[in-house]
Each structure stands twice: as C-alpha cells, then as structure tokens.
Automatic annotation (TrEMBL):
It is an enzyme of class 1 (oxidoreductase). Catalyzes 2 different reactions between oxygen and the acireductone 1,2-dihydroxy-3-keto-5-methylthiopentene (DHK-MTPene) depending upon the metal bound in the active site. Fe-containing acireductone dioxygenase (Fe-ARD) produces formate and 2-keto-4-methylthiobutyrate (KMTB), the alpha-ketoacid precursor of methionine in the methionine recycle pathway. Ni-containing acireductone dioxygenase (Ni-ARD) produces methylthiopropionate, carbon monoxide and formate, and does not lie on the methionine recycle pathway. Its cofactor is Fe(2+); Ni(2+). The lineage of its organism: Eukaryota, Metazoa, Ecdysozoa, Arthropoda, Hexapoda. Pathway: Amino-acid biosynthesis; L-methionine biosynthesis via salvage pathway; L-methionine from S-methyl-5-thio-alpha-D-ribose 1-phosphate: step 5/6. PANTHER family: ACIREDUCTONE DIOXYGENASE. This is Acireductone dioxygenase. Keywords: Amino-acid biosynthesis, Cytoplasm, Dioxygenase, Iron, Metal-binding, Methionine biosynthesis, Nickel, Nucleus, Oxidoreductase. Transmembrane segments: none annotated.
Amino acid sequence: MVNAWYMDNDTTNQCLEHHRNPPEYITVEHLYKKTGVEYFKINVDTYKTDGILDKIKEERGYSYEDEIVCSKECLPNFEEKLKSFFTEHLHTDEEIRFVLEGSGYFDVRDGDDQWIRIAVSAGDMIIIPSGIYHRFTLDTNHFIRAKRFFVGEPVWLPYNRPADDMPCRKEYVDKLQKGFVTAA
C-alpha cells in the first residue's frame, strides 16, 4: 500500500524521505480529497490476466501505453534527467504510472501549496490530475520500472511553474476549490 506524508522544507538530497518532525502521514482517501490524486493497488504478478488493469484502462480511455526505466544504467545523463524530473511542473493531461519494479517519489502540491510526498513501489498505480503542480524523483535505490498510460498519442510536455494562466491549471484549481468526488 502506498504511503504519503507532508514534506519538510529541507532541499538537500531529493532522494531522501523528507518527513516533517514529527512525521505527518495522510491516508489515500485524504490524499484524494486534498489533491485529486487517485491510487490503485494492482498485483504485478497477475495484472496481465486478472482484468483489473484492463478495466481501469477501458473506463478511463487509456489507449496508448509504454514502459520507462529510470536508473543510472538506463538513463543517459542520469543526474541531469533526475533534476529535470524534480523541477516543479504540470501537464495538460493526467500522469498515470503503474510501478512494476523499484520505487520512487511523486511530490504533489495540496490546496495550501504544501508538498505531499507519495512513495510508490511495485504494484502501486497513481493518477496525477491534469493541472496539478508536481515533480518526481527516485528514492535512494535509484531504480524504477513503470508503465505509463495515455489517452491517445502521448503529448508529454511539462510546463514549469508558474503556469497558473493555463486552462488545465484553472480547471484543476476550480475542482480543488469545489472538492474532488469519486465517480459513481
């Protein structure tokens, strides 16, 4: 099960946990209410045959997928890439990740502009809404393999903060103010 917590303000070594003192964990339900980030637990050993991932893909219209590996061995200019992933940004589409191996952190901003760190590992699938400020980093294991899903052909452009005038950001802020509700 995924863990999430409010982060401290220490900017050294992005790959560490960065808990507040005392730690301030939040539940998956609270994470959704505060940010709109959705979470699914999927069995990495049976996802190809159990139909759970297929159902999510069908319901959400995910028609394109690929796989990404982030590690020192697989990413050219590893340190530079890791820094670029950690730059606060948003996307015009959802960011969907299903972790197959390894682990890492997605950081998202709540409505009070506080960072929430989401630790993901094998079997965790998160959906980060369009328009939310976020960033990604590996943890100290420096390895993750994940599937990425898209509606249609991927348009994968990060828009670094500030991007408050973008329509996707305005829509996200509106949803944040009204409150996120789960689909029936």
